[in-house]
Write a structure and sequence with these properties.
Helices cover about 55% and strands about 5% of the residues. The strands form three sheets. It has a two-stranded antiparallel ribbon. The chain has a two-stranded antiparallel ribbon with strand order 3-6. The protein is elongated. Helix 3 runs antiparallel to helix 4 and helix 5 packs antiparallel against helix 7. The chain is mostly helical. The two termini are about 25 Å apart. The chain folds into two domains: about 80 residues, no CATH class; about 150 residues, Methane Monooxygenase Hydroxylase, Chain G, domain 1 (Up-down Bundle).
């Protein structure tokens, strides 16, 4: 995996700030905790350093935030703050895409000889056999785009890395909550933007409608379609490798096995993730 827009995302900063302030942390002695404006400023500095690819600046911001164990609110109340997420984000290793792609390729090559452990595995084998060339092609395309991005990587920013609709909640009162922050990583903004109009199958909007509504609120943005295509291929290859390995090489998993079959099939559906990844690639200008 290769690991937003040209200016800070206010909503992301707000979510980060609230998540950090509300997250419980062991109370230890700390002199003069920063007030909320100071603390928010440090978060902005960390985000700006990530945007410009300033690793040293980000390390400095991380150290300052980690030292802030409590934050003082405008009413004088001190609340705990746990900033270990930033250090964890800096240390997240990238998945070994070469190994993941090789694993999927090996499973695809063995589709004619694998003995299915149950009916779900048999159904998955029957579904994948006529589509193995497409799946192999996904691995090739992911590797090709990865090479291109290594030579010319867009500026990294803090990314959620799993920002699909299932991790976003809107209350009846209109408040937005984004969950599952354990996947934070430094990567090009397209790592998150690839979910928008990505064909993940959430109900209510077509991929085109989803993208139109999102970017109406997000505002003008220069999107690197190479990165967008790569992250979509990357996600599909990882998911297929996991689902195929879990279902075809074991009978464990219970009801999750049937769900893995549904998820695998959904990638190949009209308007699904594969079609949307191809669409991103078609929008990519040819290399000079």
């Amino acid at each position: 995996m290769i690991g937003a827009r040209n200016h800070p995302l206010p909503w992301l900063l707000a979510c980060l700030c609230m998540a950090l302030l509300l997250r419980a942390a062991p109370a230890r002695a700390q002199s003069a905790p920063p007030d909320l404006p100071t603390y928010t400023g440090w978060l902005r500095e960390a985000y700006a350093a990530a945007q410009r690819g300033d690793r040293l600046g980000l390390e400095d911001a991380a150290a300052r935030l980690e030292a802030a164990e409590r934050v003082r609110l405008p009413d004088g109340t001190d609340v705990p703050a746990d900033n270990s997420w930033l250090r964890a984000a800096l240390n997240v290793p990238a998945p070994d895409m070469a190994a993941i792609g090789a694993r999927l390729g090996a499973l695809l090559d063995a589709l004619d000889t694998l003995a299915p452990p149950d009916d779900v595995a048999a159904a998955l084998l029957a579904f994948l056999r006529p589509r193995r060339a497409v799946a192999h092609d996904l691995v090739v395309r992911a590797e090709r785009h990865a090479e291109s991005l290594r030579a010319d990587l867009p500026a990294p920013v803090l990314c959620h890395a799993d920002l699909h609709a299932g991790n976003a909640y809107i209350t009846p009162g209109g408040a937005l909550y984004i969950i599952d922050w354990d996947t934070l990583i430094l990567a090009p903004k397209e790592h998150d933007l690839m979910f928008v109009g990505g064909g993940l199958g959430f109900r209510g909007h077509t991929p085109a409608e989803e993208a139109r509504v999102f970017y109406k609120g997000y505002g003008p943005a220069q999107i690197d379609t190479r990165a967008l295509a790569y992250y979509r291929y990357d996600r599909i290859v990882q998911d297929l490798a996991i689902y195929c390995s879990d279902v075809l090489t074991s009978d464990a998993g219970g009801a999750d096995r049937a769900q893995a079959l549904i998820y695998t099939q959904s990638n190949f559906a009209p308007g699904g993730t594969i079609e949307r990844a191809y669409a991103a690639e078609r929008a990519t200008p040819p290399a000079d």
